[in-house]
Amino acid sequence: MRQIERGPFFEDFQPEQVLGHPSEIQLTRDIFQELVRRLEFDDQLIHVDPEYARAEGYRDIILPGPIVYALVFRLSRRQVSWSGLNVRTDSMVHKYPVYPDDTLRANSRVVSIGEWRGSRGKTHGLVTFQTKGLNQNNEEVIEFQRAVLNPFR
């Protein structure tokens, strides 16, 4: 039987703590195009037509913002919310386009910790994180905050 991983726990976090996320995602052109197609963004020319994207001022087709968010979220979840409950995402800003052959990585900072007044307040605490997604050139491509109910130890 496979053992279920637990943690991180509420007590594992401190305000201003910085969390590096060890994984990265390399977006080969094939992977990039498959994500755009499968998630049905292929009806928007900026995501599928390089000539159109260049005419709009980009160097190539760009990855849709919701996919960028999902990938960076995935990179951060083990260290931030593996056994927690995501209750809010705020202040999302797409700062730089993501192109085919980019590599994404992420880091997060604990913005605040506190009580949760909802039904899980006896078993979980609220931790707010600021997460940044970066490309292979250390350019920030996305930044967002999210609030997570992490269980007490």
Feature tags:
35% strand, 3 helices, single chain, five-stranded antiparallel sheet, alpha+beta, 153 residues
Mean pLDDT score: 94
Strand order of the largest sheet: 1-3-4-5-2
Query: How many H/I helices?
Result: 3
Question: Structural class of the secondary elements?
Answer: alpha+beta
Radius of gyration: 17 Å
Number of strands: 5
Helix content: 10-25%
**N- to C-terminal separation?**
24 Å
Which shape, going by the Cα principal axes?
elongated
Largest sheet: 5 strands, antiparallel
Order of helices and strands: EHHHEEEE
Strand fraction:
35-45%
Low-confidence stretches: none
How would you explain this protein's 3D organization?
The protein is α+β, with helices and mostly antiparallel strands and 153 residues long. It has three helices and five strands; from the N terminus they run βαααββββ. The protein has helices at residues 29-38, 50-55, 65-80, and strands spanning 18-26, 85-94, 103-114, 124-134, 140-151. A five-stranded antiparallel β-sheet has the order 1-3-4-5-2, covered by helices on one side. The two termini are 24 Å apart.
